[in-house]
Design goal:
The chain is an alpha/beta fold. It contains 24 helices and 10 strands. The strands form 2 sheets. The chain has a 6-stranded mixed beta sheet, sandwiched between helices. Strands 2-1-4-5 form a 4-stranded antiparallel beta sheet, covered by helices on one side. The structure holds adenosine-5'-diphosphate. The site of adenosine-5'-diphosphate has 12 residues, from helix 14.
Length: 617
């Protein structure tokens, strides 16, 4: 229990750090916001004082002609205000009413002249903070190693990016805005109350701990429950994302009812938890309303006692002003307690955002990296091991040399570690032990961006962006001319089908979407790799069955791309394997066989078995 409390405290302070970090650049804005709020509250206060005093002077109780003089002893502000009102009354009662109305009007005007810019200012700060958080998250996502993004994490990250940022804004940022107003109002009203009567105000302050205790009981557990709620929100996003990307399968397996039911069941439990949390947050307002009004009654009793006994200079008029101010303090107090519970709720989001931002970057660049101008001799894996999760090695003690100009094919059963091995070269992950050398230097010594700029990747999942065909081919080579793009497309056997699209190279891929076949998509990706003309090519061949014509076109394109290039090919097609300079057979993360196609067939081992299986298929 105590441990839980400590970790809770640690989390809350980490979250405060998060908010502080993002608010820091806007400290000046916040100070100005507080100052404008002070002025706006000041003019609200003066209008309240003016109305009571003026009515008192306009309709003086019998036998109290010299109110001004009588009040002068204990309450100088009142004395000067009264002087002003008497001066106004000197113009005659109806004129005085007119003049006083003008005075009140100008006070309201001033109040709003200060409150409007303050609202605009804080609104800006909120948008800027949200913008900065999103930028930081986006930059972080791009920096994180690929191994971080397992399928289940995708929805969670999307949810942090959308839901958590919005919730953070609506809970913490909005509450900070309300807190500033509430605190400024409460302090100024309290000062006024102290000014009117110290004894009565100290008595009122004695009751405050009771309220604080009740409100803190109310907001207990809110943070933990909210963390759970945010986790469920992210699971909802994951479910939706999974459904959209798997819609083809869901429909074909007639699993729509099952998916619907699963979603609705989860959504129901999510809604139940959400209602539970809001029931508590919404309780803060009526509870503080009741407590505040109870305080007013207690003060009425104690104050009347002071008035009756002529104690501490409290006159009936001052007492009425006092009570009025006190009643008016209840609303800001209510806002204060609501804001506090909203903040508790919001810390869960802040925590989730901070967790993502604080995820260590496992792939980092050294302080003074060596420039990388391209591959001169070889890529060498030296006793390389790798584990995604500590303790479970996916690659064990890999020793392999890929010489410049060679094509090395990696084969092996699914899950044997082929993609992981290839991902080590562009440093999508770093090996857990051992070394990966390029031209004799550990790749961690090189500048990451320069290293990656010399590596081209054609992956199995043909990644195309919502852009034109030309834009997709030139991705990564923004300076490429149309001629170069076309040249690359021709080499990749893509030019002919591109010309048949509605707008040729300017056709938006998003628009044609599914109209491109698997083979066409692949050829676009090959064109992209050709255009960037990398020294090292990593090719994760598609397993999807292409028709014979498509396969011929893709294979032709690949052969052209592989010629005179250093390539690591995760091979699925026999045709590529047969021409490779070296074939590496992986099994459970270990190299079990190496050699050329003929050598390995002669050896009659795992490779031969894989080849036989493929031929059979
Ligand atoms: P292959 O390319 O040969 O099919 P992979 O390199 O993709 O194999 O995967 C090798 C092993 O690593 C598999 O057991 C797989 O489950 C595991 N693996 C792959 N990616 C991740 C990841 N992001 N997090 C944890 N384990 C992973």
């Amino acid at each position: 229990m105590a441990k839980q409390k400590n970790t809770d405290k640690a989390k809350v302070s980490a979250t405060k750090g998060f908010t502080k970090r993002f608010l820091k650049p806007y400290g000046g804005h916040l100070a100005l916001y507080a100052l404008l709020t002070v002025f706006s509250v000041f003019f609200t206060l003066t209008t309240i004082l003016s109305i009571t005093d003026f009515l008192k002077i306009l309709f003086p109780p019998e036998g109290t002609q010299a109110v001004a003089e009588a009040s002068a002893d204990g309450y100088t502000l009142n004395y000067w205000l009264n002087k002003l009102y008497f001066w106004l009354i000197g113009f005659g009662q109806s004129k005085a009413v007119m003049l006083f109305s003008l005075l009140l009007c100008s006070q309201y005007l001033l109040k709003n002249l200060f409150s409007y810019p303050s609202i605009v200012l804080i609104g800006r700060v909120r948008s800027y903070v949200v913008r900065d958080i999103r930028n930081a998250l986006y930059a972080k996502i791009a920096r994180l190693p690929l191994s971080y993004f397992s399928a289940s994490r995708k929805g969670d990250i999307l949810s942090r990016f959308s839901n958590d940022v919005v919730e953070y804004d609506e809970n913490i940022m909005l509450s900070i805005q309300q807190l500033v107003i509430a605190v400024v109002t409460i302090i100024m009203y309290l000062l006024m109350l102290l000014y009117i009567n110290v004894k009565l105000t100290f008595f009122a302050l004695l009751l405050l701990p009771v309220i604080a205790f009740v409100v803190s009981r109310l907001t207990r557990h809110l943070r933990r429950k909210s963390t759970e709620l945010q986790q469920r929100t992210s699971y909802l996003t994951s479910l939706t994302e999974e459904t959209i990307s798997g819609l083809r399968i869901i429909k074909s397996f007639t699993a729509i009812d099952f998916s619907n039911e699963r979603f609705q069941r989860f959504n129901q439990s999510y809604t139940r938890l959400r209602n539970k949390i809001y029931r508590r947050i919404d309780l803060a307002s009526p509870v503080s309303d009741f407590l505040g009004n109870t305080m007013v009654i207690v003060i009425l009793i104690f104050g009347s006692y002071l008035v009756f006994n002529h104690d501490s200079g409290l006159t009936p008029e001052l007492f009425i002003t006092y009570i009025m101010l006190f009643v008016l303090m209840i609303n800001p107090a209510k806002d204060f307690s609501t804001a506090m519970s909203q903040i508790k709720k919001g810390t869960a989001c802040a925590q989730r955002l901070d967790d993502l931002l604080q995820t260590p970057d496992t792939v980092t660049e050294i302080v003074d990296p060596q420039p990388f101008g391209g591959l001169a001799q070889s890529i060498e894996f030296k006793n390389v091991s790798f584990a995604y999760n500590a303790g479970t090695e996916v690659l064990t003690d890999i020793n392999l040399t890929v010489r410049r100009g060679e094509t090395v094919a990696i084969v092996g059963p699914s899950g044997s570690g082929k993609s992981t091995l290839a991902d080590l070269v562009p440093r999508f992950h770093d090996c857990t032990s051992g070394q990966l050398l390029i031209d004799g230097t550990d790749i961690r010594q090189y500048s990451i961006s320069q290293l990656r700029s010399h590596i081209g990747i054609v992956s199995q999942d043909t990644v195309l962006f919502n852009d034109t065909v030309a834009g997709n081919i030139a991705f990564g080579c923004p300076g490429a001319t149309q001629q170069q793009v076309e040249q690359a497309a021709r080499v990749a056997n893509a030019h002919d089908f591109i010309m048949q699209l509605d707008n040729g190279y300017q056709t938006n891929i998003g628009d044609c979407g599914d109209r491109l076949s698997g083979g066409q998509r692949q050829r676009l990706c090959i064109a992209r790799a050709i255009l960037s003309n990398p020294d090292i090519l990593i090719l994760d061949e598609a397993t999807s069955a292409l028709d014979t014509e498509s396969e011929r076109l893709v294979q032709e394109a690949l052969n052209r791309v592989l010629a005179n290039r250093t390539a690591i090919v995760i091979a699925h097609r026999l045709s590529t394997i047969a021409t490779a300079d070296n074939i590496v057979v992986l099994d459970h993360g270990n190299i079990v066989e190496t050699g050329t196609h003929q050598q390995l067939i002669a050896r009659n081992g795992i490779y031969k078995k894989l080849v036989d299986m493929q031929s059979f298929r």
